[in-house]
What does this fold into?
Amino acid sequence: QPDGRLDVSLQPFGWRQRLLLAHDISPLTRLEQIRRDFVANVSHELRTPLTVIHGYLELLDPEDVPALAPVLGEMRAQSKRMGQIVEDLLTLSRLETQEHVVDERVPMAGLLATLRKEAEALSQGRHRITLEATAGLDLLGSPKDLHSALSNLVSNAVRYTPTGGSITIRWQRSPEGATYAVSDTGYGIPANHLARLTERFYRVSSSRSRETGGTGLGLSIVKHVLNLHQARLSVESTPGRGSTFACHFGPERLLAPEN
Ligand code: ADP
It folds into this structure.
C-alpha cells in the first residue's frame, strides 16, 4: 500500500540469530488519522458559531431584560468555557500533526516572571507564591508552546490548591539538563490516577475540574509540547498533601543567556 506503515523490530532468536518481526499497523494509523481529522474539523466548524453566540451574549444588557439577568452570567461563562475547549482541541490537533518545532531562544528570566504574575492573577492573594530560579539558563524551542505548557502547570497548581496553600515554581539545573517544576500543597492525586493524567479529558474529579474552569485538555497539551522538545513530564503526588509536576529538558535544549 502506498501509505502503508510497518512496525519493524529485530528480536534476539537463538544463538547468533535474529528474528525480524514486521507488523502491519496501516489500519491503526489510518483510524488515528481519521480521528484526528474529525476532531480538528468539528472544532474548526464550532469556532465561528461560538464566537457569534458569545458576541451577542456580551451585547445583551441584563437591565434591558431583567428576567434574563440571573441566567445571563451563567450563559456567558458557559459559552466562554466552550470557546476554551474548542481552542484547546485546535491546539492539540496542531501539536499532534506537527513533527518538530522551529527553535528560538526562550529567555527564561522573562518567562518565569510572566508565569509568576499569571499565578498571582489567578490566585488573587489566596496562596503564597514563590519563584526559585537559576539565572544564566535559557531554553531553545517554541516560545509560544513552551509558555502554554509551563503556564498550564502553574494554573493547575492554583486551581487544585485550597486557599492558604503554597505554590513554588522552580527552574534549576539537573543531572540530565534542567528541570522546570511546579509544587503545590493542594489536594494531591491518588496513585492509581497518575498514569492517565495526560489523556484527553481525563480528570480525577470532574466536578472540581469544571468548577475551577478546566477543559480537561491541559496536561495533554503539556505532554505534546514536551514531546516536541524531547522533554518529559514527571509527577509526584500525595493525596491531601500536594503535588509536584516537573518538566525535564536535555542539555541540547539549554542555552546561556545573551548579554
Ligand atoms: P483540567 O482542565 O481538568 O485541570 P488537566 O489536563 O490540566 O485538566 O488535568 C487533568 C486532571 O489532573 C485534573 O482534572 C485534575 O484532576 C488533575 N490535576 C492536574 N494538576 C493537578 C494538581 N496540581 N493537583 C491535583 N490534581 C491535579
